[in-house]
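[agent] plan:
  1. take the single chain provided in the ticket
  2. run structure prediction with default settings
  3. attach structure tokens to the ticket
  4. add a short note for the reviewer (M.T.)
[agent] executing step 1
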Amino acid sequence: MLRVAQDGWLAQARALPSPHCNARPVGETISLLVIHNISLPPGQFGGGFVQQLFAGELDPHCHPYFASISSIRVSAHFLIERDGSLFQFVSCLDRAWHAGASRFGGRPECNDYSIGVELEGTDTEPYTPAQYAALIELTRALQAAYPAITPYRITGHEFIAPGRKTDPGSAFDWRGYLRALTGHLDTPHFAPTTQRSPA
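[agent] step 2 finished; step 3 output follows
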């Protein structure tokens, strides 16, 4: 069983601390889970390039696409690879730089109060059973540690940054994922108005 320690680190994840983070606002409650996807180069999996990006160590000469992103300072709390392998880059207690300009429930700056989980994948390619299994177990551990992350406060990057981001995309099985968490066949999470934040 996964468990988040008091220092915000998950012992069962491979820790690769990223410099791309900072402190949350004093007294902030962790209350939102944001699901993303990422692949480097785009549409290709493996190679460890995502880990290098989050560490600020991506070699711009390894691939033509990398020249345009190697200087970006970005991170997430967690990455789940295609085989279900779990990596952690930032303590849950700290502010990872994953959401950018964003808004949930009328409140901006989602990085302040959210945890970001990256799935290795694309918007249109199905995620693997191993990824869903790891994500469900991770979500349960995060909810146990931070009970303000209710099923109503789990969302995708596309919904907190509409028009700017599209992940985790149409390939992500929201119904199956949330049903596994809640035990309900139908939930209100699939209505766009509950996923998107008001302007």
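[agent] step 4 note for reviewer: The radius of gyration is 16 Å.
[agent] ticket updated
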